[in-house]
Fold these 2 entries.
Entry 1:
Amino acid sequence: MAPDKEKTGIGFGGLRTKSVAPPQQQTRTDNGIITLRYEEAIPAKPPIAVTVAPPARAPIDIHPALRRPKSSVAETDERKRDSGLAPTTSSKAREGSVTTVDENVLGVKMDFDSSFQSAITPQSPVPSTPTPQVTRLDSVGSGSISRWRKPGSRKSSMPKTPRTPTSKSTPEEFTPISTPIPTESLIDEEFLESLSFSKRGSMMLGGKKAVNGHVRTHGGRRQPSFSLLASPSIKILSDDLEKDSKKVRSMYEQGIGLDWEDGKYAPMAKRANVEEALAEEEPAVSNGHLRPNGHVAYQRPETAMSVRQEHELAGGIEDWEDIDGHDVDRYGFIKLQRKLSRPGTPEPRPPQRVSTVLQQASETPRKQRGFTRSPSSAANSTRGTFKRAPSRKVSARSLNTVASNSSQRSTSRIRAAANRLPGNRDRRWMDEAGDMLTLPPGLADIAEDEEGGRAVEGLKKKEWERAEKWRKMAKVLKTGKDGEGMEFEFDARSPKLIERTWKGIPDRWRAAAWYSFLNTSAKRRKDSPSDESIIQAFHKLQDASSADDVQIDIDVPRTINSHIMFRKRYRGGQRLLFRVLHALSLYFPVTGYVQGMASLAATLLCYFDEEKTFVMLVRMWTLRGLDKLYEPGFPGLMAALDEFHKQWLDGGQVSKKLTGLNIEPTAYGTRWYLTLFNYSIPFPAQLRVWDIFMLLGDSDPSLKPTKDRPFCGGLDVLHATSAALIDGTREILLDSDFENAMKVLTSWIPVKDEELLMKVTKAEWKLHRRKRV
Amino acid sequence: MAARGPAGTRGGSTRFAQFKLVLLGESAVGKSSLVLRFVKDQFDDFRESTIGAAFLTQTISLDDNTTVKFEIWDTAGQERYKSLAPMYYRNANCAVVVYDITQASSLDKAKQWVKELQRQANENIIIALAGNKLDLVASHPDKRAIQTADAEAYAREAGLLFFETSAKTSENVRELFTSIAKKLPLDQAGPRNPRAGGRGGVELRSEAPGTNANGGPCGC
């Protein structure tokens, strides 16, 4: 049997025959088919998905998660199952029997969880569907698990030999499709009837939220040691989970809108939409398939939503209903003042987590320092004493320390003057860190618009100039036609580049630079998978079910939903966000999806298409320590916070104060590190931190990872930022009791002067470097 | 045993007590929304998920001369954050365990939390069970997945306070917290100590889940 023929059989006909194949095949004499007792069956070889549509060139690194049997076959089948047309077991058995493509390509040994044994109860075919083949196949394959297991994983004494003939028989089993295959089965009437939505937009099936909190049936999640490409812990989902996952995914695939008025889905009208969408099938419109770089395009069955509403712009990912251009800041966030109009959708609102003290500090005009700046020093004494701030008692502590002087006048004049001396710049930034909460001089009076309105002409001009400098530093790696999909590279070691990155990457260069920085890191490591293989993984994983889909679905609508991309339930950016997180949860099975990841993915989606976003996430996980931070049980996070505590806070004044109050970084640092400050500082400031973290977030190769330092300096930028935030709130913290200190530290910190934040961060970073040497 | 920010007389006959309260429950049942309603009297349809835990305070007056301050730790609901929970419920004087009345599985989860608290937390901890999202069943009674009577029976059996609440309409939210305050041992509280260091509550190291099972959160 020619191998390619075999592939054809599998890919295009083989599995589909399942429900239509004539029963006589069962009795056909075929030496290739042997009959085994069920108990003797060995786990089938998962069909490597590659067989379905061989890529132009062989993928070098197939991620473990992909090594499971996932094929278009499985998909059609699963759709049927969802519609109640196809039985579960049979199809899987079938797959198992079909694939022998190659021997343990991955060299991966898999655990066979004995609990599966019980799951192998052969199911009787669903009554309504005649599935004659099922019985036969069940005798060949080993039931539903076969699909998930690798041969030899079960300590079975079965010789592998019988398997080859089995597979060889496949092409012969090919029977042209004679029955229409439902492609739309997920949105049939029955399903729609049972479907509704809670007020918050969660999908409800038959009045219940699609299951939440199912126990994972496989312990893969809890494996303590996690080495990226070595341990594919395949999770086997319970039927319920599998079903939920499918349904959730189908919602995003169809982009079915909701009637927000009452939180219920309006089947008729919307359904018509979807049908049109399906009929149209115009790949160009479906936003999930942006392929700027000319990667091999995976033609997924084109169920992706393609009917765009007129206010869905930018390829359908932005929802501009009721929004004008001037309502949105340069980063796509809808401005706070805007009055709501569309009912039901999340409305932008001021961050509510700002502690009162911080709010006051940020509203008080910036104080005058020493002899500097403007003549209007009359106002200089007003700040520092936040009028309604916790009462300032002059204690012994505050009398003889620099920082407590600051509660009166921040820095002493002498020190302020000294800070202006050439060598003392860093100290100056740290002394003045508190000013990061206020707008820089010159902008304070014109910035009536807190987050968005800094687009002052002068700044614009400056940014153009800087963008030009970046253009000159960029080396073109790749040009597509018409300038599409250009890729750039920056010399990450160039001191000039590092200096300029500290100053902030011009927004138009941000995507290119971030990408290049991580790419550079990836090239330094031999085991890094290529873009292509990651993107391939991304698309393949869309067809797999994840136990986390329901949780992801809960979190997607509440992730930066004041952003123009993420407003519309199940559509646009929300859809991309879901797809990316879904793939991520499978790509890193040990970590899975954890709350907090959505804010990282959403940030990246503001700059990259979904494929590149996924590449970036994978790289951040493996090269920037995120996989460790999110490790189950959070040992990595704890180690990071500990490192910050011991090596950065370092017995300083604030540290003593916090220790005295019994506040450790674990009390406030969790969200700083897990969301890379997305939860805690304004977006422009977060981007600045990310700029430098993308560039300098590599772990130090000269250090060996130990239990105490699992990150080997890789998180230094984050530590420095944390230290800078503490510097920025120092005056308040030193004057706080437990309660206020906790509030400040867990609050949104309204950093308005991100330049100053970065100067302080850099000063902290340099100080630490010096200490380390 | 002890309000941890010790309480006592202030002025003549007024009493002030401070207690640590922790919220637990499955993801998206409305923990943060209940707190937000209680503390700021606000509501968001799409509240961002809580990462780690959030810290808030709210003070209520029980009567003319009794004031109770809650120090509230609002925790993340996803199963994966469970390992951090002991840091937050350690030394808590009271807990609100929240479930979603439209979701059967959430009560199971709530029961697990109750069990864990009763086993691991401060032995005198006051636990309240709150069935949230009452507003949803007001308009669509068929959405209810957990009958009031069932949950109530469970609460009685387990010795919990019980309320069905709506953070959205604020129904029963204040009642919930007030009834907790009334059950707390105000009388045993010591004198107020405004800037005390060494208050037992925030050693947030996670190593030993459920230390301090012997009550007495505060050494002072």
Entry 2:
Amino acid sequence: MEHLELFFKSIFIDNMVFATFLGMCSYLAVSKKVSTAVGLGAAVIFVLAITVPLNWLLDQYVLQPGALSWMGADYADYDLSFLSFIMFIATIATMVQLVEIVVEKFSPSLYNSLGIFLPLIAVNCAILGGSLFMQSREIATLGLATTYGIGSGIGWFLAILAIAAIREKIRYSNVPPALRGLGITFIITGLMAIGFMSFGGMLTGGDEDTAEEKTVEVQVTPTENTELANNTKIEE
Amino acid sequence: MGLLSKKDAALIKDPLADNNPITIQVLGICSALAITAELEASIVMSISVLFVLGVGNVVISLMRNIIPSKIRIIVQLIVVATLVIIVDLVLKAFAYELSKTLSVFVGLIITNCIIMGRFEAFALGNGPWRSFLDGIGNALGYAVILIIVGFFRELLGSGTLLGIPVLGDPIEKTGLYGFGYENNGFMLLSPMALIVVGIIIWVQRSRNKDLIED
Amino acid sequence: MEKRTDKNSYTIVFAIIMVLVVGALLAYLASSLKPMISENQRLEKQQNILYAMGVNENEGTSANFVSTVDAPKLFEDKVSEQLVLEVSGGKITSQKTRQEYMDSNNGQEPYLIDIKKQKSNAKNGEPRKLPLFVGKNEEGKTVYVAPIYGKGLWDAIWGYVAVDENMVVQGAYFDHKGETPGLGANIKQRYFMDDFYGEHLLSESGVFKGITVAKGNADPVNNDKTDNEVDAIAGATITGDGVSAMIKSDLKLYKPYFDNLKKQAN
């Protein structure tokens, strides 16, 4: 259930393109044709699904304050979080490179269709954004991190697929000459983003209900330790 | 010959209009959308990018012959990230107030593709001085768009400029608000930034027909 | 023709050297600047707590802290006690004064307790330490300042809320790590923080309700202080929800303490 919620949340509500405006540059630059858009979109899903869980492990066991405690009590106080950016970037870059080498070796046909997009991906801020969101939103388990990576990737895929389809069709419309190409794409993306904002209320409504229930619990709080409050010194 | 040769001067001038990084090269869009709800933030971001792009372009240009081509993008990313993190750490230690204002922009600068784009397109193939000029020129071109978008979004969205009310007080109903004018809260949302940039592109291309795509 | 820089071996060696150089450089800088940075952060925490208590240098519409030079002295004067509560299952299991806490924690000051860490400890079922700063505000009223911590749209948000013994807000300070400038970042603007002044955290029947940052409520100038709502910032829904959520989840934990206070008074 938790997985399903996070999955849909990362596709629709927190859509990389329409809600957080990440990965805009390749989204605008590579969306002229549906076929290339599908290729890039698939590559993004793939890379996000690998790098988010990897960076999760890195964050949990190396970077977080106290994350090194598995190495022994001496290391418990280390805080390497200032290295997050660099380490995440390095992981992403290395993974993209590795994937490229492996795919080239074992499946030349897949490499031909996917390979040219891989270098583009490393500069796609949606990929780094995915890892940084994973860190700042404190996703709890490796499984959830994977779900989050796949979900965000699918969200980005859907967005670029939709805009590419619209751009293919819009060629038959009578757009003012100066607005053709990039101009109209910006405006359409703006309208699509407004459309996606309507997903915003989908899960928050549920959250409030559970919060309401929790506050009721507080009402029955037993207070036995009355004498403890005596320690307060401000009364004097 | 003045301080700059004609070719060098073009490096600064072109990105301001005909080869603008945002409206023509499609670079640095994410940040242009995220931070332009306020004019002040647009200006701070522009100055930061000016600094990072100028210095970063020179560094990459100096390293251009030793960077392995396969991982050049990563090397570029790491150079930017390191530069930005160093500046952030130093500011945190010596100018804490300033660092608090800028900390929001750290992540946005590192992931700003205008920086990566110029490294890739220019600094990797040119000497340090020309790369520096190119960096400054593109950062200024980026700044122009950011400031225009920030100006309109803040004016129409909150009725203020740089935080100072210019259209009267919306609660007391003075100034323009006395005639029934209302702030358009929609302007503050990011989708409207996309639409404002779209309109800027429209205006620019109507004035210069050469830029029209078919 | 393959250039020397195209070889896989060169690439890997270059990458390793690069990572080592950059890592070492950053690690060196981070560790050598750490004392200065944590001193700055310590002073900022004092300024934040004082701000929430109403000890600040606000002018016009801008929020100003007391200067870093004055902060330590004022902090000592105004904050008369720093309590550390441990709460589990809605009960206070232990309560330490500043001295008691420092004696058992190598002299660490209670206001330096890392709220984020305490929150994640609590998730793992460990007891959670809750600092509470007690002092008198400018009007001579006793106020209790509690830290809160949560998530906004992009990254962490946190703050300090000062309440009186009836859990009516006497001042609030919010800050954020990376909210959108002009939108979510406005939670640290004075007009937003001032809205919390006088708001009730409890409902009329004394149940903890928190304060909701509400969109489109019928009370934009915030005249109704008992509706448990303040007006939201346009365009910053998720950050606003984050503020509501952290007030609800974190301040709720202090409710037993105030229940005890009341029992004593009766």
